[in-house]
Amino acid sequence: MMLWILIAVLTAGAALAVLIPLRRPVEHASDRRADQAVYKEQLAAIDAELKRGLIDAEAAEAARTETARRLLAAAEAEKETTAVSSSRYRVRAAQLLAICFTPVAALGLYMVLGSPDLPDQPLAGRLNAPMENQSVDVLVAQVERHLADNPEDGQGWAVIAPVYMSMGQPLRSAQAYANALRLLGPNAEWFTELGEALTVANEGMITSDARSAFEQAVELDSAPVKPRFFLALALSQEGKAEAAAEAWTSLLDGADERAAWVPVARAELAKLRGEAPPSETGPAVEQPAGPTAEDVAAAGEMMPDEREVMIRSMVSGLAARIDQNGGSEAEWSQLIRSYMVLGDQGKAEATLKSAEEALANNPDALSGVRNTASKLGLTGS
Fold first, then answer.
1. 109, 151, 203, 381: which sits with the fewest CB atoms below 10 Å from its CB?
2. 76-89 pLDDT per residue, tens
């Protein structure tokens, strides 16, 4: 019933939107003809008063001029009123058409495109529907409603935290994990996921809060690789080469060579030592401290979230070191390539602009960076 009331209100509003502009008072030509008769009588009265000497010639001329002007105006108004009157029937026809056609057309469209037989579906009904018939959004809303009523339900926060992460809401995921830890106590896995959510939210940079979460996870259980992997990346991002090399070495000690993260860790360790990556041969060469094609390829077997975090962490670390210590041609070029690999052209362009400013006094290096950018489809200043 409420639906039909709303339809009636909307239809009335649509009709009024058409009728109001058409509505204007219609003046009759007879009114204007009466005005003209009055002005003619006034002209005759002025002439009579002049003959009787009641007014002088100058005053009579002025009065006659003003009355004549009003007479002409009344005559013009009569013409306009006549034209309006002739279109009055067309206006009324348009009004009638609007009154009849608008609701009929609206109802017809609704019957064709709408679902008049579909019963109301309030939020409560959707939330209480069988689980197999509910979308992810409805399920999340159901858990959120439960948590709003029971904010101390730690298990509920633990359930919804990974869902938030999969929906691309890392900050809400981090808050949910924090609530679960606060209510249910320490848990190595939750600390790890909390740190990862904070890292994703900060575009790969491992903040102090994220690092603290990873450290607490390792204190509770030192066996899992993920928290130690992130802690090694954190040391690399902070420019602590010796500590980072030690962390990568410890991580690789006894590792399964088939694990997807192992080539990445070995490549990072090689960079810190100034050595060529294990996949290359020949003399050691200086390697830019950022993800190479080998790193990205090695990450291919990781879960999407883990792969994204790993790559962004290394890119952020490289960017931080360049910002702090300056960068070589290879490092600037590597950072630009990395952003393009991540699909972040805006940051790649901003990095190219920064490189042009930083290498302004080194034409050869600047030319190399610009050549790399040009191959990637970027144009400098």
1. 381
2. 766 665 655 555 66
The candidate with the shortest Cα–Cα distance to 337, out of 358, 361, 314, is 314
Helix axes 188-201, 170-184, angle to 10 degrees: 150
Amino acid at 258: R
Closest CA to 117 of 5, 4, 9: 4
Of 321, 332, 296, 300, nearest to 311 by C-alpha is: 296
Residue with tokens 């030319």: 367
* Residues in Cβ contact with 347 at an 8 Å cutoff, skipping those fewer than 6 apart: 339
From residue 238, alpha-carbon distances to 55, 156, 318, 380 in Å are 106, 36, 10, 30
d(Cα 216, Cα 219) in Å, to the nearest integer? Answer: 5
φ, ψ for residue 206, nearest 5 deg: -90, 105
Q: How many CB atoms lie within 10 A of CB 318?
A: 23
Are 273 and 236 contacting, i.e. CB atoms less than 8 angstroms apart?
no
The answer to whether the CB of 234 falls within 8 A of the CB of 195 is no
C-alpha R_g of the chain: 41
Question: Contact 357/363 with Cβ under 8 angstroms?
Answer: no
Tokens 């010639």 locate to: 57
Q: Are 188 and 213 in contact (CB under 8 A)?
A: no
Quick check: 194 and 178 in contact, CB under 8 A? yes
Q: What is the pLDDT at residue 186? A: 94
Exposure class string for 61-76: b at 16+ Cβ within 10 A, else e: eebeeebeeebeebee
